[in-house]
Amino acid sequence: MKVCPCCGHVDRSQFRASRFDFDAEYMRFDEAVAEVPKVVQFLKDKPNFFPYYAGHGFDLVYYRRGTGGLWLYRVLKENFRVPRERKRHKVEALVTQPLLSFSSVDDKFTREVKA
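User: That's the sequence. What structure does it adopt?
Assistant: Structure tokens below.
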């Protein structure tokens, strides 16, 4: 249960906090019929990540996600499709490093940059 600090609105929804998205909550799409019927009716034949703006002053975005749109997500409008920070993997770091090659002119290793 969540309570808005500004207006005192009590949110008794069955949405769960997502482990993967920022400030996102989710629930199964078929269970959301009782919770938010207008949203389910609108998104039932839409593709994944198609937004439905709702809430007090349209500050929430609902969208489907998962194989076949299995999950219904709810997130603040400001956080919808926020680019995430990605880890730079070791493979990318190795590709960007200059390669060592054997030079036959002076018989020692030299560093050559392959572009």
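The mean pLDDT is 76.
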